[in-house]
Write a structure and sequence with these properties.
This protein is an alpha+beta fold. The protein has 37 helices and 25 strands.
């Protein structure tokens, strides 16, 4: 499960000012139920309150036959007992373990063992003698093993997989615990039966292996410098409130001494209907669904509730400083304490964050990022229930101190306080916000996330004000902003310095001795069998017909592909080039350079402001093999936006100072890449797949970067349209109208310039186990297995789909069940057979485990057993197959995604919707087919082990047991 940062969305913080009359609460009745709604709500959400106090919010969106779901509980780490931090997060994990009806073979026999485990943990918590604690834990381990013979691990995920769920997850944060799912709309009855049972009487089983997963989650946090910086800064920003005094995952001491009895008390106290909400958006009938929800959850009984009510924080009257050390790149962050939700002050801070940083025309964007005074800078406002956090961040450029970067951030605050910004920024922010909402509210997950946030912070009561927030922002004057900024931004912040260096306080949660538990993966409880037997009306798949769903034409010598947008006024135009960095190594640098260039009419700063003012975006993205120039926004500004991009490409002028700064920033970014363990691991993977010359290190050397000439980059930009490209358009215009318009705006040559041939890379042939190792100072070890496995074969796609679903996909997969559930070897693990994106490329078998360094050997052994021997679990296979078919039956490719699907199939040499073959090929597959696939492509093969870990925590002799060890330098990995 993941800890959640507050939803970063366009839905702006509500204000206490009276909203416009267009957004008003109304009451209505339908289907025998009363509900509230807000007039002109684009989500058409209905807010119900059932007799037991349960809040239900339903939003209908029939574009796809799926439903997005959240179960939101207004309790998180703020409500953890002071003596048991991390408890809410533990509970979140345990809500996946079943009840007395599922997750068990015989609850009557299992219960005495679970009661004994509860008692042993209480005894363990009260014991301080290390030897005695070890003895008690051994008894916990033994009893847990006995209990596991009667439990069934991950029956919840098995049922969700069979229903067709694609995104089972949950998160805990300061004042919330939220459980999320999506599922096909034909499975409502099954889904509600499962969810109602899930919360009826949860049983906390298979606890000590789940506890180990939480330990691993904590250790991953201890390896995350940004996480450590945030935690220490929150401590200073909130010396009284639990935002700063209790972390969501809890202290190491409390993690080591959990109490199942306290967790049960917490559940009974806070998981009550008057503190919970069911929020659903998608292809649903509200009148029918509310009746079913009411019937399913009527067993819930309300209780008196007292939520966390802290004493107010005293004002900050000085600057607090925090220093954090670690191996990642240095950065500086300034945090100011904001205000409660639904206050005018929070509205102003949200608006100010966009005035400072909006990606285009904010003060930080123009004065720092555009002028390359730092590597990058940004600002944002994060809203919680009781307070918000206003943040300013920067990464220093080459030769710049953290204090220098901090000073530059504060200078922008001073400009704000002095009113040295264009008042048009307010109007532009409103326009961009409305455009963002127009796009976002079309998505079910955005709808449920937005409403979930509303429920957590104020039980949804201010939904009308949140919808009206852009209009309210439009009424804010420049003078009001400067007056507020003058009062708010003082020497009243916490500054955090993330230094590159050794963390001398590094700790980890030590692992106890754990015996693998029995998962009983091949068995079902009676409840599961009943759920499986419930009838479901099939959903017919809808596949694309490219000849009908796409409109093909010509604009001059360029091919044109369009899809008409009949829903709103948004457009997206793309010039797509079948060339990239593998054709021209300078091309990605030219794309970066472009944003800093002026023309004969506009400065670089004016160009950014122009786009922001018309609420349009443009980007030049260069991949290895494909490059795109994309323009998007409202159709009414189409001509303005396209004209502006065409003008920039044709008339941009060299800027030597900007290039010098860009080179410096590139070199600094390269240094930072070498401090990023994820980037290092990806580099090892590329080295293993292609050898010493590979896509990850095929780049200019640092010396070559220093020699880049402005004239060469500008030449690429001036001539980019002379290379062959396809023009694609998704928007309100017909094909004919679009071609007529774009032919006038986009000038083309009489013939295209042939592009240079792309660099070709040779795949390695792995004949014996190899280990590629990179040293990195961290608690954990990151291990990936990879081997190449031959060119693309479209006939394999159904088997690849089903194999991945069964073997290494979700929580019910073979890999997750074994590595995490049974053996507790890792928090994060997966395995999949990777399909190439082009017919000339190879497949690859990839596996991953992120484990504590001292568990690396066991983790490798555990994964190797699965790679070589595929367990047969018929129930899991049936669920995986049903899930794969469900995903294809309910997926709907629409809008501009139709164009992207067309290009993806083209690259694979397929002239039709490839999902047709995949769907038809899936239907007859049996376990024997997947078994033979595993034997032919996965089992008994030599692998490349890519390992990033600290050489102080792993032994070289252990690595040598896996295969021949090659320790790579970072220059070998990155090519610089």
């Amino acid at each position: 499960m993941k800890n959640k940062l507050l939803l970063a969305c366009f839905l702006l913080i509500a204000t206490g000012v009276m909203a416009q009359t267009s957004y008003q609460w109304k009451t209505a009745s339908s289907g025998g139920y009363s509900y509230k709604y807000v007039t002109n709500d684009p989500t058409k959400s209905r807010f119900y309150t059932l007799k037991n106090g349960l809040t239900v919010v339903l939003s209908r969106n029939t574009k796809e036959p799926v439903i997005e779901y959240r179960m939101a509980v207004r309790a998180g780490s703020n409500t953890d007992p002071k003596t048991a931090t991390g408890l809410a997060h533990y509970l979140e994990h345990l809500l996946f373990k079943g009840t007395d009806k599922f997750g068990t073979l015989d609850f009557a026999k299992e219960k005495p063992l679970l009661d004994k485990i509860d008692a042993l943990y209480e005894q363990y918590n009260k014991t301080t003698d290390p030897a005695k604690r070890k003895e008690i834990y051994a008894e916990i381990d033994k009893t847990s093993g006995e209990a596991s013979n009667l439990s069934i691990a991950n029956e919840y995920d098995k049922m969700m997989t069979s229903i067709g769920g694609q995104s089972t997850n949950a998160h805990t944060w300061y004042e919330e615990t939220v459980y999320n799912e999506d599922f096909p709309s034909n499975a409502v009855d099954k889904f509600l039966a499962l969810q109602a049972e899930r919360f009826r009487k949860p049983i906390f089983r298979i606890f000590h292996t789940e506890l180990e997963a939480v330990y691993e989650e904590k250790n991953r946090g201890l390896d995350n410098d940004a996480w450590k910086l945030n935690e220490k800064m929150m401590e200073q920003l909130f010396p009284t409130h639990n935002y700063g005094q209790q972390t969501t995952i809890g202290t190491i001491e409390h993690l080591k001494n959990p109490s199942l009895i306290e967790i049960r008390k917490y559940y009974n106290k806070y998981y009550v209907p008057n503190n919970m909400a069911i929020i659903m958006a998608g292809d649903l009938n509200p009148d029918e669904l509310i009746k079913k929800i009411d019937a399913a959850f009527a067993y819930m009984q309300p209780k008196p509730l007292e939520l966390y009510n802290p004493a107010p924080e005293q004002p900050l009257t000085s600057i607090k400083k925090v220093d954090v050390y670690g191996p990642s790149a240095e950065s500086v962050e300034l945090n100011y304490r904001g205000y409660a939700q639904s206050t005018r002050e929070s509205l102003l801070l949200d608006l100010i964050s966009s005035i400072l940083s909006n990606g285009k025309a904010g003060l930080l964007d123009i004065n720092l990022n555009k002028q390359q005074k730092v590597l990058r800078a940004g600002a944002g406002y994060q809203q919680m229930k009781d307070y918000g956090v206003f943040s300013l961040t920067a990464q220093p450029k080459q030769g710049q101190s953290l204090e220098d970067a901090q000073k530059l951030l504060l200078e922008q605050i001073q400009l704000l306080k002095e009113g040295k910004f264009d008042e048009s920024l307010i109007k532009a922010t409103v326009a961009n916000s409305k455009l963002g909402l127009l796009q976002a509210f079309d998505k079910n997950d955005f709808r449920v996330e937005s409403i979930t946030t509303e429920f957590i912070q104020n039980r949804g009561a201010n939904w009308n004000k949140s919808l009206a927030a852009p209009d309210l922002m439009a009424k804010v004057t420049k003078q009001q902003i400067t007056d507020f900024a003058g009062k708010f931004f003082k020497d009243n912040y916490v500054v955090g310095y993330k230094h590159k260096g050794e963390d001398k306080d590094v700790v980890k949660v030590e692992k106890p001795a754990i015996t693998p538990v029995n998962t009983n993966a091949g068995k079902n409880s009676a409840f599961v069998n009943q759920l499986f037997a419930m009838p479901v009306k099939p959903i017919a798949p809808q596949f694309l017909d490219y000849k009908k769903d796409l409109n093909f034409g010509k604009a001059g010598i360029a091919d044109v592909i369009t899809v008409q947008n009949k829903e709103n006024s948004i457009f997206e135009l793309t010039y797509r080039f079948e060339m990239g960095a593998w054709n021209y190594q300078l091309q990605p640098y030219a794309a970066q350079y472009l944003s800093f260039l002026s023309t004969d009419k506009y400065t670089a700063e004016q160009i950014s402001k122009e786009f922001y003012n018309i609420a349009c975006n443009y980007s030049f993205n260069v991949g290895n093999e494909v490059s795109t120039i994309t323009i998007s926004g409202l159709q009414e500004n189409f001509d303005k936006a396209v004209n502006l991009v065409e003008h920039i490409l044709a008339n941009c002028k060299p800027n030597e100072e900007a290039l010098s700064e860009l080179k410096s920033r590139i070199l600094k970014s390269r240094e930072n890449n070498k401090l990023n363990k994820g980037a290092i691991l990806n580099g090892l993977m590329s080295y293993a797949q292609y050898g010493p010359v590979n896509p990850a290190n095929y780049t200019l050397s640092n010396e070559q970067v220093k020699q880049i000439k402005a004239a060469d980059l500008v030449y690429i930009l001036h001539n980019i349209s002379n290379y062959k490209h396809t023009i694609t358009y998704y928007g309100p215009q017909t094909k004919e109208a679009f071609i007529s318009g774009i032919s006038k705006l986009h000038k083309l040559p009489s013939e295209f310039t042939p592009e240079a041939p792309a660099k070709e890379f040779n795949y390695t042939s792995t004949t014996a186990n190899q280990v590629y190792f990179a040293d990195y100072d961290m608690v954990q070890s990151e291990i990936r297995w990879v081997r190449n496995d031959g060119k693309f074969d479209a006939s394999l796609s159904p088997k690849v789909n089903l194999f991945n679903s069964y073997f290494g996909g979700g929580m019910g997969s073979v890999v997750f069940q074994t590595i995490r559930e049974s053996k507790a070897l890792a928090y994060s693990t997966f395995a999949f057979y990777s399909s190439p994106d082009k017919k000339e490329k190879d497949y690859a078998m990839i596996a991953y485990v992120g484990s504590q360094a001292d568990k690396m050997n066991d983790a490798v052994t555990g994964m190797n057993e699965l790679l070589n021997n595929l367990p047969r679990v018929d129930e899991s296979f049936a669920a995986a197959k049903g899930n794969s078919l469900n995903a294809l039956e309910t997926s709907r490719i629409t809008r501009d995604d139709i164009i992207q699907a067309y290009f993806s199939d083209q690259r694979l040499g397929i002239d039709h919707d490839s999902r047709i073959d995949e769907y038809n090929g899936l239907k007859p597959l049996k376990f024997e087919d997947i078994k033979s696939f595993h034997e032919a492509h996965v089992a008994g093969k030599p692998y490349n082990y890519c390992i990033v870990a600290s050489d102080k925590r792993v032994k070289m002799e252990d690595l040598q047991k896996f295969g021949t060890v090659t320790k790579l330098s970072l220059e070998q990995v990155f090519g610089y």
